[in-house]
Design goal:
10 copies of one chain form a homodecamer. The first copy, chain A, is of the alpha+beta class. Chain A has 6 helices and 2 strands. Chain A folds into 2 domains: 3-66, lambda repressor-like DNA-binding domains (434 Repressor (Amino-terminal Domain), Orthogonal Bundle); 84-143, Cyanate lyase, C-terminal domain (Cyanate Lyase, Chain: A, domain 2), CATH 3.30.1160. Chain A has helices at 3-16, 21-28, 32-39, 47-57, 61-66, 84-108, and strands at residues 111-125, 132-143. In chain A, a hairpin with a 6-residue loop joins strand 1 and strand 2. Chains A, B, C, D, E, F, G, H, I, J: Keywords: Lyase.
Chain lengths: 147, 147, 147, 147, 147, 147, 147, 147, 147, 147
Amino acid sequence: MTRNEVTEMIVTHKLRKKLTWLQLAKAIGQSKEWTTAALLGQMTLSAEQAKEIGELLELPTEAIEQLQVVPYKGSLPSSVPTDPLIYRFYELVNVYGTTFKALIHEEFGDGIMSAIDFSMDLQREPDPKGDRVKIVMSGKFLPYKRY
Amino acid sequence: MTRNEVTEMIVTHKLRKKLTWLQLAKAIGQSKEWTTAALLGQMTLSAEQAKEIGELLELPTEAIEQLQVVPYKGSLPSSVPTDPLIYRFYELVNVYGTTFKALIHEEFGDGIMSAIDFSMDLQREPDPKGDRVKIVMSGKFLPYKRY
Amino acid sequence: MTRNEVTEMIVTHKLRKKLTWLQLAKAIGQSKEWTTAALLGQMTLSAEQAKEIGELLELPTEAIEQLQVVPYKGSLPSSVPTDPLIYRFYELVNVYGTTFKALIHEEFGDGIMSAIDFSMDLQREPDPKGDRVKIVMSGKFLPYKRY
Amino acid sequence: MTRNEVTEMIVTHKLRKKLTWLQLAKAIGQSKEWTTAALLGQMTLSAEQAKEIGELLELPTEAIEQLQVVPYKGSLPSSVPTDPLIYRFYELVNVYGTTFKALIHEEFGDGIMSAIDFSMDLQREPDPKGDRVKIVMSGKFLPYKRY
Amino acid sequence: MTRNEVTEMIVTHKLRKKLTWLQLAKAIGQSKEWTTAALLGQMTLSAEQAKEIGELLELPTEAIEQLQVVPYKGSLPSSVPTDPLIYRFYELVNVYGTTFKALIHEEFGDGIMSAIDFSMDLQREPDPKGDRVKIVMSGKFLPYKRY
Amino acid sequence: MTRNEVTEMIVTHKLRKKLTWLQLAKAIGQSKEWTTAALLGQMTLSAEQAKEIGELLELPTEAIEQLQVVPYKGSLPSSVPTDPLIYRFYELVNVYGTTFKALIHEEFGDGIMSAIDFSMDLQREPDPKGDRVKIVMSGKFLPYKRY
Amino acid sequence: MTRNEVTEMIVTHKLRKKLTWLQLAKAIGQSKEWTTAALLGQMTLSAEQAKEIGELLELPTEAIEQLQVVPYKGSLPSSVPTDPLIYRFYELVNVYGTTFKALIHEEFGDGIMSAIDFSMDLQREPDPKGDRVKIVMSGKFLPYKRY
Amino acid sequence: MTRNEVTEMIVTHKLRKKLTWLQLAKAIGQSKEWTTAALLGQMTLSAEQAKEIGELLELPTEAIEQLQVVPYKGSLPSSVPTDPLIYRFYELVNVYGTTFKALIHEEFGDGIMSAIDFSMDLQREPDPKGDRVKIVMSGKFLPYKRY
Amino acid sequence: MTRNEVTEMIVTHKLRKKLTWLQLAKAIGQSKEWTTAALLGQMTLSAEQAKEIGELLELPTEAIEQLQVVPYKGSLPSSVPTDPLIYRFYELVNVYGTTFKALIHEEFGDGIMSAIDFSMDLQREPDPKGDRVKIVMSGKFLPYKRY
Amino acid sequence: MTRNEVTEMIVTHKLRKKLTWLQLAKAIGQSKEWTTAALLGQMTLSAEQAKEIGELLELPTEAIEQLQVVPYKGSLPSSVPTDPLIYRFYELVNVYGTTFKALIHEEFGDGIMSAIDFSMDLQREPDPKGDRVKIVMSGKFLPYKRY
């Protein structure tokens, strides 16, 4: 049983049991963002978290073991995503990529925003002209080491 | 004079005049995020904004005209960016792409977060363990039309 | 059972039962364009629509559940399509892409035609020199937000 | 002087002379869609049309000659376009590609919609919820020859 | 059963029954070129033709049904073919591509040779220095429509 | 001066002098197909042929020298051509590739049709339903050597 | 059973029976180079050779039939090989490609070295500083036909 | 002046001075294979060799300096070469790649043939049925280190 | 059973038996780096080593045989890796590639660092500001042969 | 003047002035690894360092300014490098990529080795069987944040 098969099984069982990502997240005491990423094969669960999820979703032992192994990350089937929702994020990187770079360097100097020491929060932002998706990202600035 | 040449000229003149993106943004009354994107060839300036920038950066008339034309967007030289700072954003799309999709659909149903009716704010977030980059994105949710 | 397997099953069962896309569309009260896209794995059905289609095509429960899940969109196996009928549409984008851009910007300013708040109608256009395919597309214009 | 250089020159001169694509189209008695495509390097002008455009945009003789030569077509710098406006059309091909195929085959049998014996009309469609872009495409159906 | 599986089954059964493409073509009253393409998943058979082939090759009902459905065309596993025989044709397009273009435009003006209203004949051409492959292609010229 | 620059110069001078490919071919006593390919940078001229062409098109000595050097072949700017006329030939390889292979192997056994010991003739084929492009290709069959 | 499955079966059975490629080659009276290529899915065996190999490796009838069919050639899973041994040959083409071209043209004029009328011999070359791999390639020179 | 410009200059001057690769090789006391590769930008000349070549080809001092710098190697403009002569070598790697691997491993065990401690000899092999190109390659076998 | 299936089986059995890579390495008397690479399908085990691993991980005979065959190397599913840990190494090659080249040539002249006669050691480097990964690579310098 | 042009100028002037990377590094008080990367366009110099280098290499003011700007990083012209020396490092990532991942996760848990808080040392390692290149890499381990 590969990790991809575990992910497919999680998606199917979650649908059948009518559980939300938020409910699964609360069950293991993590944010919905981290939990969803983990269950979609991008993060590593602790033994207890894996057991908890395994019970909620009725996963076999082998799947519960797999959830504790660090996965080979990358959730997209092609380097330029075809799904319109995900493509919009790729488009933001394409349109705003050099802007991110210019503004972070102006504020911090040479370095990067970590994608590892990173957290994220996604919320509905009510708006009379149509509700909005609000995403707050926070990543540690890492300066390039001189040596 | 192509738009790329205008962008290169802006970067060079800005460097020589020791102006920041923030100062340029204030001069035209827009956010630093939108202004930087515009000056890096991704957005369209009004006639007055273009004139203002043209004076600050001593651009020739042809460049000022070009800034008012809608550009062919996309700021990266390759579909997978090689620059480490920009790559981290690509990586976030790759690792969290299916998570964005799952959570937005759970909250809003089928549709996307607009990358057009969109705004962004990038700030330094002080932190004793090392300051962080904080990015707040806000995009209108657009539901798929049924017909 | 993945969504791709549901799509293959729909195509096979439709063939065997000699149903047309138009008949399936009428059964769920949507246009033939939206319905075909949905049944080919690109749109999301309501619970009733999924049930209706499930009965007409004798689909198993799992397939009916899947039709209510937002799919990972993108219907083509390669970024440049090899099928001649579909390639002609890609060719139109390639030949007329900059024309679409120039004319929409001339009429509306900077922004895009939405592919989400979008509808389409495909009809036979009788013509003595040979009938024609007539496609009417209608997408909301979305102006780039300044901020 | 290559055809690309002619195209760049046309875009620059048109900007300076504040002419619209529609005005250029009227001057040569063709639709704005065909004319824009031709001036962006995708179609071939007659000797008179080239002369007319040459005078309006003050092009050198060499450019006027080039406009009468059949160009190497394809207006995009990459196989998947990065510009958001153009990408939306690529996305429509990606999401609706198999739908186009299914519906045209259902109506006409095996064959294609011609991208050569083809015309197009792009208009503003007023709408209280926000104006829309309306595109009408008409292409001859070409059945696959059996032999 | 997908169309690819039908194609593989046809190739296997033809081998076992020691039938040639020419014999199969004669059985359905079409040329060997069209018939081979159809049986390799590129063209659509009529109900009678599919039944005839089904009997000759002992295909199951599902395969016979599939042969009457318009296939997703494109017979090669990669955009640049690796098989030496097929690559030589790709090489001809690469080496002679601009020559085809120049000569067809010189003779006919702007337009294309149709690959749909098209037929082909492949024969052995005896030659004392070594027999040759002779291919005659005939495609309708389609002029670009002006509008 | 690179070979590409020689090719561009030939195309420009030919246009200015209103010469056809056929006239150039007759001047050097070769077919229009071979001559066009040679002048578009795919074949090698003899010293006399290069001198003849050089006089007709008023080429500088350096260009005449270059025409006698074996060029780096391949006339297309991308592995999948974007020009519709040339793409149709690529499409024929894609749709009929496995058919070419099956029929040549049925007639000749394992081997290829040479693209080197090869000639081609392109003619207008009058037809009341619309004239056709007729292309006759002849390439030596080369059997795979066993050793 | 596809040809790839036949190849995998040959590799597995050969391992189990502890036979070498050289022994298999001798059994069918061909060189080890041609035989290995054939058994790895790149060449076509005669009926007797296929039978002989089938007995030695205990292959089923279907596999023996497949070995007599001309395969779709190309033995590598990616256009740039990842395996270090095979990559070194790709590197030689990359580093020495223009050298092969320059020297063959200097000696023979315009044309190619055939990869079809071709043979190869691979031997150990003893050397006190470390044994060497010696490969002798021999391919017929094919001059470009003028017509 | 980049190394590519040096290479282009060498090719042009060699043509004008009617020197062969063999003559250039003899002048510096190396094989024609190594010398051609070096002059085409793939190897590094000693100071004396560079001076010798510089005099023969009348190169400027800057070019002579460049010839002594280790170049960024790789002589082809695309990962799959389009030139038919060079493609045949790529095809040999594609068709025989797994054969090279199988036979070298059978003879030597796990390791590679070096492309660095490597030499090559290319000769005309007279043959009544048409002369052949004979290439002898010799590369040191390097076993994978165990540690 | 392909080598990929052997690798998946090793990963699964190792997880179930709670063995570390270090323990497996000690069992066969090699370094943890070489052993891990070997068990992940990149190196070749001796008969004894394969037997030892087979017993520890309870592998079937066929898997034990496969471990003694030289594998088709290359452990990544895409040419640019998506996994963040592995991508960082790719990034180092991208950012420092020309630096490696410049410094090795400055020290050694033209040649390469062998990736075959190569060993590696990976250790934890304790550091009060956060522990570090220390990797020591050692590869034989191979000078380009002149001939 | 782009950063690439600055890099080319540095390489040319360094050659003419016969300076080594090590000498340049000492002049600015950094390691030879960091300095070479910086001068090849991958790191950012301080004002004093840029001035120092500018004097040593006689760079114009504009180049000295550019050296203080954070560059768009990535030093390779293609995603898979063609230069043999650099390719060997890419090969190490390809062959050992999953090994790096397995061993770092075994030692540290889920996270990465930083390529930003990173240093490197490259030395000659004398060896009677042929000197070796020794590279010591040290990167901070960054654990994935849970939230």
